[in-house]
Design the sequence.
């Protein structure tokens, strides 16, 4: 599957560029994603986005705008139909399933709207399981998990079962699981979608705080204007395209919010943020 | 592929799951769905239990029989008249005495069959003979033929001349006599020269079942002198029981024909009863095939149960699979997790089955007074079968789980 994507990728993405760009944790270059079907559904139409280390980014858009697809691709859970996705400088389409899994284990943390916690396991083990596939031994997994839970303010509930926690606490556990391995980037999919206003705000505060104090790179995907409003950088999406980006250089690159740019015509010069 | 990576930071190589982690993963599904896991393991348990119990019981019964044979000794030889052209040959009256002179022979006892029939009372119709025989017996017969007196006394020099009898175990049962009391008697007919007439025989004792010489069981034994005087018995022995020292058994076996009837050695049948019993012990196991087949069917049903629960499990746990993929599990990690879970499920069933089968065998063998023998083949085979079944049943669901795309698994809820 990767070979197919490779041939479809425009030759405009030279490999050497990979080497010298440590600060761009996530980089999408004219990424197109078309879901096969009758008719085929284009979810992303030539999206380019670069997230540097230490950024806190909101990807905002209504449902169907392609923001979830963007998250899939950024999280290497899916591969682009065309274009290049680089995570920590590695071209995703060049990696096999095993290497992608290794990349996810080491460099990407996920936070989901539904939390996805195992009910029969303690909070500590839920978080420790986040490191299971990174090749960390059980004792160290638990140590790191306990530390991560301290950081999200749940150091006193290590032995609790997720069913004994409130929604906000559950999401904190999920966040602890995402950051326990100190990944290069944390991808959060509607992290406040299942929470009430106040709890959601507290979760967003936590994300902001993690970003500020530990420099964790966080991308939050949301449809909620208010949620996005709390982030320093906001990327708006509509119909599979990025229509605005508040990053200084990105704003310059997209003066026209309704731009007709298509896949294969990158909206900003290659290597701009470097 | 490697070219592009050369300049970049090496991507995280997927970690190998440690065995302890794999074991923890394998029981996740079982711990969360205990009842369902128990029910599907039950099928495997029943199959394995059936196989272990059948093999264990047949081994234990063979061991019991062999122990019995060993206790009785394999040094008993019997001499009987063989077939000749003119009919059944006879053994000379002097045969026991001549056999006793062979080196290595230390016990010789004999019985001789009479032509009378025995009944509980004169009121029993004469056709109801129960196929019992009335035999003249020498006084040391039980110890040599392989039995002992259960109740009362055996014949002695005095009672051997009188209308007194001792009942073999089967004969006592068929005559409806389970106790010896003074005045207890049975009726024999055909005592007269012309086949008429009858008389009472007083019962002196009852013998235990004779494992090596079943002929004794269905006999009513009287003394030689009495039989010759009152039952028209000609005095020719029909079975001679010979015990030889273990070292000499084979030599004695070869000489018995000539020694018993030098005039007509071909008219003598010599046999070693323990051989027949060993063959019998082996033959019993042939009957087990049916039960083994039933056990195999139960195992098959159990396997389908495991496959079924695993397929359902994969469907139900899509989000878990998706989450694990997001956390960095490779397809291989997912596959091995579900495969190990199926194997663990079958293994639990297999172990429970082995314990149940062994317990059933132990209880039954204990009741029968046998040693409990669970052949290695039985429990190791049961365990191996369980693992194999788990692997086979879990393979397809595991492959399906691994093929699940992470995005579908996570976002299709």
Sequence:
């Amino acid at each position: 599957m990767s070979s197919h994507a490779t041939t479809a990728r425009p030759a405009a993405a030279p490999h050497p560029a990979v080497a010298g760009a440590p600060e761009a944790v996530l980089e999408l270059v004219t990424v197109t994603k078309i879901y096969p079907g009758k008719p085929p559904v284009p979810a992303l139409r030539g999206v380019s986005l670069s997230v540097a280390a230490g950024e806190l980014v909101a990807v905002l858009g209504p449902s169907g705008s392609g923001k979830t697809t963007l998250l899939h691709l950024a999280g290497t859970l899916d591969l682009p139909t065309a274009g290049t996705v680089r995570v920590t400088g590695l071209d995703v389409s060049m990696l096999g399933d095993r290497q992608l899994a290794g990349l996810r284990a080491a460099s990407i943390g996920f936070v989901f709207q539904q939390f996805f916690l195992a009910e029969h396991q303690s909070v500590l083990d839920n978080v420790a399981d986040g490191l299971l596939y990174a090749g960390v031994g059980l004792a160290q997994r638990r140590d790191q998990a306990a530390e991560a839970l301290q950081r999200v303010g749940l150091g006193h509930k290590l032995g609790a079962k997720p069913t004994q926690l409130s929604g906000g606490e559950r999401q904190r556990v999920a966040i602890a699981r995402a950051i326990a391995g100190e990944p290069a980037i944390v991808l959060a999919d509607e992290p406040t979608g299942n929470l009430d206003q106040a709890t959601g705000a507290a979760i967003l505060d936590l994300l902001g705080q993690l970003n500020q104090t530990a420099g964790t790179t966080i991308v939050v995907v949301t449809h909620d204007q208010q949620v996005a409003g709390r982030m320093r950088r906001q990327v708006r999406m509509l119909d599979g395209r990025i229509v605005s980006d508040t990053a200084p250089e990105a704003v310059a690159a997209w003066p026209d919010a309704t731009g007709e740019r298509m896949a294969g015509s990158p909206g900003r010069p290659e290597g701009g943020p470097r | 592929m490697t070219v592009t990576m050369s300049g970049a930071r090496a991507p995280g190589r997927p970690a190998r799951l440690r065995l302890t982690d794999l074991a923890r993963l394998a029981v996740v599904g079982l711990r969360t769905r205990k009842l369902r896991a128990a029910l599907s393991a039950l099928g495997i348990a029943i199959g394995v239990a059936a196989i272990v119990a059948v093999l264990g019981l047949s081994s234990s019964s063979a061991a019991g029989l062999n122990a019995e044979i060993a206790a009785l000794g394999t040094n008993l030889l019997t001499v009987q008249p063989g077939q000749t052209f003119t009919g059944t040959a006879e053994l000379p009256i002097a045969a026991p005495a001549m056999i006793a002179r062979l080196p290595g022979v230390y016990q010789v006892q004999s019985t001789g069959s009479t032509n009378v029939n025995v009944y509980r009372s004169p009121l029993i119709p004469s056709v109801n003979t129960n196929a019992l025989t009335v035999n003249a017996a020498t006084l040391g017969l039980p110890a040599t033929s392989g039995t002992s007196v259960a109740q009362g006394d055996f014949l002695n020099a005095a009672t051997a001349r009188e209308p007194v009898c001792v009942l073999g175990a089967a004969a006592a049962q068929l005559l409806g006599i389970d106790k010896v009391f003074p005045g207890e008697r049975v009726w024999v007919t055909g005592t007269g020269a012309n086949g008429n007439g009858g008389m009472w025989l007083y019962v002196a004792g009852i013998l235990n079942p004779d494992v090596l010489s079943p002929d004794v069981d269905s006999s009513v034994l009287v003394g030689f002198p009495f039989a010759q005087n009152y039952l028209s018995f000609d005095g020719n022995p029909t079975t001679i029981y010979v015990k030889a020292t273990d070292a000499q058994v084979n030599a004695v076996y070869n000489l018995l024909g000539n020694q018993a009837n030098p005039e007509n050695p071909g008219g003598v049948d010599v046999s070693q009863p323990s051989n027949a019993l060993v063959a019998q012990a082996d033959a019993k196991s042939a009957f087990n095939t049916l039960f083994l087949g039933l056990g195999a069917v139960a195992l098959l049903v159990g396997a389908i149960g495991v496959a079924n629960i695993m397929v359902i499990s994969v469907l139900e746990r899509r989000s878990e699979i998706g989450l694990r993929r997001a956390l960095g599990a490779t397809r291989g990690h997912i596959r091995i997790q579900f495969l190990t879970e199926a194997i663990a499920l079958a293994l639990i069933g297999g172990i429970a089955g082995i314990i149940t089968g062994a317990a059933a065998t132990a209880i039954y063998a204990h009741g029968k007074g046998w040693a409990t023998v669970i052949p290695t083949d039985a429990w190791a085979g049961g365990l191996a079968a369980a693992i194999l079944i788990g692997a086979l049943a879990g393979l397809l669901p595991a492959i399906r789980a691994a093929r699940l795309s992470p995005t579908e698994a996570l976002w299709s809820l």
Confidence is low (pLDDT under 50) at residues 1-22, 251-274 of chain A.
